[in-house]
Amino acid sequence: MVYTRKNQRNLTSAERKAFVSAVLELKRSGGYDEFVRTHIDFYVSDGEDKLRVAHMAPSFLPWHRQFLLAFERSLQRINPRVTVPYWDWTRDNSPASSIWSDDFMGGNGRRGDLQVMTGPFAYAHGKWEISVNVTEGRFLTRDMGRPRDPIGLPAPADVARALDDPVYDVAPWNSTSTTGFRNKTEGWTTGSGNARFRNHNQVHRWVGGVMVGAASVNDPVFWLHHAYIDSLWSRWQAAHPEAKRYLPDVPPPEGDPQHARVAALNEPMPPFNVTPSALLDHSTIYRYA
């Protein structure tokens, strides 16, 4: 049966509670930390001379679609009625938005150490200790809007610019690709300072704290953010039915700087052993409300 991923602002209190409870149980069992490890292991930059599938590559979108599905299925083994909601940060775009309520994601970090003190994922409540990290931090941190170097959330026009691009991705298939829906959504640009980041990347930096970097999965809002990114990919596909839904469709040849460094349409993406082509259509699994 096809299930629905809802906008987090439209969840009932029972749905919010069910989602949080399933996440906390997955954390208690050790399963959540496996997702953190996976994201750290596959956070490969385009400056590294090896295959990258999660970021700075065409497979950014299908890799995270599979990552989300694996996470969602883990939650559904705990509670079959749970689905991953999405956070539309173009509308719920302040620290006062409902997503940050005490019964859901919790609020901002406190001054000084940025520790989140409210909500179910606060370290002080004893159920959310960060044990897999790229630093020694043990508690969830946030620095919304980064007051010392302010950054905003993307606006509807930023999303529209990405959705309007009729091409999925372009060479050189990395963070320097200047056009294409994938990189306009992932959000690498040639700008400097905060202008370097758009859409997906900009949101990670607006939340701040552990949401910045390879261990960003330690903040459960990661999943709601990426569910929205996934929904944008669905919208782009619907808006451009004649476009090739994934590029490159053949591997870059020997001699190309991206040879063996990006996944083509029918090449498996580790660690899932699933190809981008297998993830182009989610309509038989889930839909977005």
Describe this structure in words.
The chain is mainly alpha-helical. The protein has one domain (3-288): di-copper center containing domain from catechol oxidase (Orthogonal Bundle), CATH 1.10.1280. Helix content is 31%, strand content 2%. The chain is built from seven helices and two strands; from the N terminus they run βαααααααβ. The protein has helices spanning 13-29, 31-41, 60-78, 156-164, 181-186, 199-207, 221-239, and strands spanning 3-5, 286-288. The protein starts with a strand and ends with a strand.
Number of strands: 2
Principal-axes shape call: globular
- Alpha-carbon distance between the termini? 15 Å
CATH architecture: Orthogonal Bundle
Whole-angstrom Rg: 18 Å
Strand order of the largest sheet: 1-2
Instruction: Indicate the mean pLDDT.
Output: 97
H/E element string? EHHHHHHHE
Broad structural category: mainly alpha
Stated plainly, the CATH topology is called di-copper center containing domain from catechol oxidase
Q: Please identify the top-level CATH class.
A: Mainly Alpha
The helical percent reads 25-40%
**Domain unit count:** 1
